[in-house]
């Protein structure tokens, strides 16, 4: 089968690898759409010597496809069903696994990391991690839901935001844009920050009231001016940019909430200045849990503006160009069509 492979130093190739074989309790899924995640990019940028098992593992954890072969015991995950492949699998028996949160399992195995991933014509996955996709949800939207929208939803719900809140969103990649859509739909007033003009435009389409170019104006001063000098009630960091991470701690109001969604780097916090004397609530959120999936589907179907994030997919033979585009600041979601 055709598969994307990382080769190090911002390079990748489309190559031929064997079709993976399902074992007990696993299904073979023919991928129709995968997508590049911001969390793929730190690995894409590494030299080959630092890639470890990722040098020989198909990347990608945002997978939509059709069940090609399922074990007889699979029940509702029978062959022919359109599914999202949930990115994490666990032991199936620990507290985290039985509560639908296998990402916290001590035996976590993640697509594109500990097991072959989504950027290929086939992948295998435990049937317990196959999430049915309704007919009216396109492959592109399903790929967005599989990681970025699900992540944005789960994080956003943890903030408790609602009508009357001002929410600043730093970083308008696909996760940040999904947060903007959710925050606007909840009735909050959204201030969206990103240096890329196309991303700011997209955020406006998704409901942002105000956008700020941090390369042009100091976002902290600008946001304080917009919020009576006190700062917004909620700030959501989606950029994983160290400068932005410092700015969100400065700009959020006393007794406000910071939600961190941008990962894979280090940030510095002054506990006294930024957290204790502000009595901040700092939240982290990783990926959605399985029990959240039905609500995530309902939310995505109620937000037609999300389609503005989905451009023309890259063809499978253009998969290396898709990840290169995401690395270069692609506006919207970089999708790869394997159908
Ligand atoms: Zn992802
Ligand atoms: Zn477990």
Walk me through this protein's architecture:
The protein has 339 residues and is an alpha/beta fold. The chain folds into two domains: 2-138 and 310-337, Medium-chain alcohol dehydrogenases, catalytic domain (Quinone Oxidoreductase, Chain A, domain 1, Alpha-Beta Complex), CATH 3.90.180.10; 150-284, NAD(P)-binding Rossmann-like Domain (Rossmann fold, 3-Layer(aba) Sandwich), CATH 3.40.50.720. Helices cover 27% and strands 22% of the residues. The chain has ten helices and 17 strands. Strands 3, 4, 5, 8, 9, 16 and 17 form a seven-stranded mixed sheet that branches. The chain is globular. The mean pLDDT is 95. The chain binds zinc ion (ZN) (2 copies). One zinc ion binds at residues 37, 39, 61-62, 147.
Throw out a few tags for this protein.
Rossmann fold, binds zinc ion, globular, Quinone Oxidoreductase, Chain A, domain 1, 339 residues, 6-stranded parallel sheet, alpha/beta
Small-molecule binders: zinc ion
- Tell me, rounded to a whole number, the average pLDDT: 95
Q: Whole-number radius of gyration?
A: 20 Å
Residues in β-strands, percent: 15-25%
Q: What's the number of extended β-strand segments?
A: 17
CATH homologous superfamily classification of the largest domain:
Medium-chain alcohol dehydrogenases, catalytic domain
Briefly, what is this?
This protein is an alpha/beta fold and 339 residues long. 27% of the residues lie in helices and 22% in strands. The relative contact order is 0.16.
Blueprint of the fold:
Layout: E1 2-6, E2 12-16, E3 26-35, H1 41-44, E4 63-69, E5 82-85, E6 88-89, H2 95-98, E7 109-110, E8 122-126, E9 130-132, H3 139-159, E10 166-170, H4 174-185, E11 189-193, H5 197-205, E12 210-212, H6 219-226, E13 234-237, H7 242-251, E14 257-260, H8 271-276, E15 281-284, H9 293-301, E16 314-315, H10 319-327, E17 335-337
Parallel strand pairs: 10-11, 10-13, 11-12, 13-14, 14-15, 16-17
Antiparallel strand pairs: 1-2, 3-4, 3-8, 3-17, 4-5, 5-9, 6-7
Helix pairs in contact: 3-4, 3-9, 6-7
This protein binds zinc ion (2 copies).
């Amino acid at each position: 089968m055709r598969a994307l492979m990382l080769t190090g130093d911002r390079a990748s190739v489309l190559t031929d690898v064997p079709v993976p074989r399902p074992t007990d309790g696993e299904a073979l899924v023919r991928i129709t759409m995968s997508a590049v995640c911001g969390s793929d990019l730190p690995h894409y940028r590494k030299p080959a010597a630092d890639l470890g098992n990722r040098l020989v593992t198909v990347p990608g954890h945002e997978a939509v496809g059709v069940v090609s072969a399922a074990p007889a015991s699979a029940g509702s995950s029978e062959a022919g069903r359109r599914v999202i492949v949930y990115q994490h699998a666990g032991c199936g028996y620990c507290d985290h696994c039985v509560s639908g949160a296998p990402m916290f399992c001590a035996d976590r195995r993640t697509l594109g990391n500990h097991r072959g991933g989504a950027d290929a014509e086939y992948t295998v996955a435990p049937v317990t991690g196959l999430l049915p996709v309704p007919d009216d949800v396109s492959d592109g939207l399903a790929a967005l839901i599989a990681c970025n929208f699900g992540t944005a939803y789960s994080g956003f719900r943890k903030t408790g935001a609602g009508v009357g809140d001002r929410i600043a969103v730093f970083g308008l990649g696909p996760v940040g844009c999904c947060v903007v859509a959710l925050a606007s739909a909840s009735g909050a007033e959204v201030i969206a920050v990103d240096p890329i003009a196309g991303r700011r435009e997209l955020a406006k389409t998704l409901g942002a009231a105000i956008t700020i170019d941090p390369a042009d104006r100091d976002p902290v001063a600008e946001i304080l001016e917009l919020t009576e000098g006190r700062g917004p009630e909620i700030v959501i960091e989606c950029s994983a940019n160290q400068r932005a991470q410092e700015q969100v701690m400065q700009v959020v109001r006393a007794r406000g909430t910071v939600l961190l969604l941008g990962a894979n780097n280090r940030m510095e916090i002054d506990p006294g200045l930024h957290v204790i004397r502000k009595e901040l609530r700092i939240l982290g959120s990783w990926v959605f849990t399985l029990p959240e999936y039905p609500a995530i589907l309902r939310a995505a179907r109620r937000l037609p503006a999300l389609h503005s994030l989905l451009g023309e997919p890259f063809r499978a033979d253009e998969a290396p160009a898709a990840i290169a585009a995401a690395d270069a600041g692609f506006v919207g979601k970089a999708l790869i069509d394997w159908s």
